[in-house]
Amino acid sequence: MPTKQVTTSSKKKTTRRKVKKNLVIVESPSKAKTIEKYLGSKYKVMASLGHIRDLPKSKMGIDVENNYEPHYISIRGKGDVIKELRKEAKKAEHVYLAADPDREGEAIAWHLSYLLGLDPKDKNRVVFNEITKDAVKNAFKSPRAINMDLVDAQQARRALDRLVGYSISPLLWAKIKKGLSAGRVQSIALNLIIQREKEIKNFKPEEYWTIDAEFKKEKHKFKAAFYGLDGKKTPLPNNDAVQQVMQKLDLKQPFTVANVEQKERRRQPPLPFTTSTMQQAANNNLKFRTQKTMMVAQQLYEGINIGRGGSVGLITYMRTDSTRISEVAKHEASAFIHEEYGDQYAALKPRQGKLAEGAQDAHEGIRPSSVLRTPKSLEKYLDKDQMKLYSLIWARFVASQMTPAVIDTMKVDLVQNGVTYRANGSKMKFDGFTKVYTDAKKTDNMLPNLVNGDEVILSKNQPNQHFTLPPARYTEASLIKTLEENGVGRPSTYAPTLNTIQKRYYVKLVARKFEPTELGEIVDNMISTCFPDILNVKFTADLESQLDEIEEGKQNWVQVIDQFYKPFAVEVKDAEKKMAKVKIKDEPAGFDCEICGAPMVIKMGRFGKFYACSRFPDCRNTQAIVKQIGVKCPKCGRGQIVERKSKRNRTFYGCNRYPECDFVSWDKPIGRACPKCQHFLIEKKTKKGIQVKCPNGDYEEAMQK
């Protein structure tokens, strides 16, 4: 019997080897989300949530006896983040550090490499100027080692700020009050505001007059103004000088056209935004505070979800002091302008700006990552603030690649009896870049056709008295411009500097202009007396230049700090002995404490003045200083509406019976009800005047100028 053949089929066990992923570390979750989408499944992108290591808050953290060695510690609350990053780094095939492309980003990458046990000499640092698919993928093709010159420059800045702040601040606490601070840039910003306030207080107005006139040639009317006597420009300091001019005139006789100058003027397009010019334009045009501008710009840079395209970075890196633009961006903009506006609007050779002294050219100017993403195409994806800022950046960049505007100008002198009036006119001949950047447009003011020897009739002649005005208080925009012009601070420092001097209540914003407080003047006086170099603009600008040279590898950071600190330490010791204690006197409030009956006083606190019991600390009764507006509370009917300030110094209105009544409104109630819906009416201030309206939108009254 044949043997039955038994075949055994063995099941092959296949074990799939788990492919290790590459770990990429960035600062923010939104940036991580955008980048992970571009890199694909082989990469895991995590966020460090900003800095993970810093100098301790409880002490200076700089060893001045040991080459200014900084003592870094892990930031409190970042323990879980660090633990998770270490865990993922151990599992990863390779770790890439993709923090922002500046000194601070380089320092974050260096701190990460230390905590994760990476060698900073390894090629694990990835930088890109814009968060787009091509830019990110290209950056990962050529990673580099951590640039220790950039790290040292950041360490030097951090050490200098710490040495100044932690040396002067304790003196301010001891001599004035606790909670105060001083710093290199913030002290100069405060001093500029105070010096301007002194100029305003010491200003003496000077009288001057103008004579505005209207002339007629046939049916055409045009305006002119008094220029001078006997062909020379003549000032009008008082009414006597005006009367001398008026006596020379014969109002029945015509004026003769004595000189006509016609010119063609070219108005050059603006350069792309730098950080400071963006902050200035956003403040002037959009009424954005500097901190808000940087926050919204960060959102646009890190990535916005634009539907099918997913999350994409809409602008290039927003901390830069260069106006340079990449060739790729120039070509894309040129093609867009040719197609959208016509050949005559595209500049053959776009205007190039000169790099300011001390400015860095590490990054491009601020521009859209793609000019094809027009503001209109992004309307449904951006919120109101994002749309405003993106539109401003987009228009400015496109305008920078366009041709100049061409304006016809005309200057005409009109003479009678030795008295000269001058008329100036202009007319847009070709709109050029102003077709896009409308902020730069001006209304046409063209004169009629006039030639030498023509006669024109004086129809109106109005003398006006004026007085010279004091210099304007600084706005956020003008203060940033002044700091930049003086070489004080850098793009990343302006927003936190302005925030700090307000947070410490050294200054306050009134009608969008800085006014120093009593506390600010006391602090400034103390610093200027004991630490003159800190307030020396040239000294601080030179120090900024040395920090830049550290970044370029031209200076040693320890030597730069040593040159600064040794004389500064002597000043600190002298100040400890010489600086007199300042007592901020309490002012009588004019009423008694409702708890113990003792007189109430007005005290100076961290956020301004407030009412407190004079028996403090035995009685701790305090009250906010509020202003009644003479309107009953529309909610409870028993309380009075008072004007208050939010933590961000924004005015709002609430019931004085709070917390019993929780009525609040950003807009000022006026004490009347809407005739349509009976809701309380509010008052809104606009450029044109005051608008009384119903918040429900059913009713509004005529504008009051």
From TrEMBL:
Taxonomic superkingdom: Bacteria
UniProt xrefs under Pfam families: Topoisom_bac (PF01131), Toprim (PF01751), Zn_ribbon_Top1 (PF01396)
Domain Toprim: 21-131
Swiss-Prot/TrEMBL catalytic activity: ATP-independent breakage of single-stranded DNA, followed by passage and rejoining
Keywords: DNA-binding, Isomerase, Magnesium, Metal-binding, Topoisomerase, Zinc, Zinc-finger
Feature type site, description Interaction with DNA: 51, 157-158, 161, 166, 173, 319, 504
Top-level EC class as recorded in UniProt: isomerase
Active site as annotated: 317 (o-(5'-phospho-dna)-tyrosine intermediate)
SMART domains for the chain: TOP1Ac (SM00437), TOP1Bc (SM00436), TOPRIM (SM00493)
Segments forming domain Topo IA-type catalytic: 147-573
EC number of this enzyme: 5.6.2.1
Stretches the record annotates as Interaction with DNA: 181-186
UniProt keyword annotation of Magnesium present: yes
InterPro entries attached to this UniProt entry: Topo_IA, Topo_IA_2, Topo_IA_AS, Topo_IA_cen, Topo_IA_cen_sub1, Topo_IA_cen_sub2, Topo_IA_cen_sub3, Topo_IA_core_domain
Family: Belongs to the type IA topoisomerase family.
Alphabetized NCBIfam families for the sequence: topA_bact
Subunit structure: Monomer.
Function of the molecule: Releases the supercoiling and torsional tension of DNA, which is introduced during the DNA replication and transcription, by transiently cleaving and rejoining one strand of the DNA duplex. Introduces a single-strand break via transesterification at a target site in duplex DNA. The scissile phosphodiester is attacked by the catalytic tyrosine of the enzyme, resulting in the formation of a DNA-(5'-phosphotyrosyl)-enzyme intermediate and the expulsion of a 3'-OH DNA strand. The free DNA strand then undergoes passage around the unbroken strand, thus removing DNA supercoils.
Protein name, as recorded: DNA topoisomerase 1
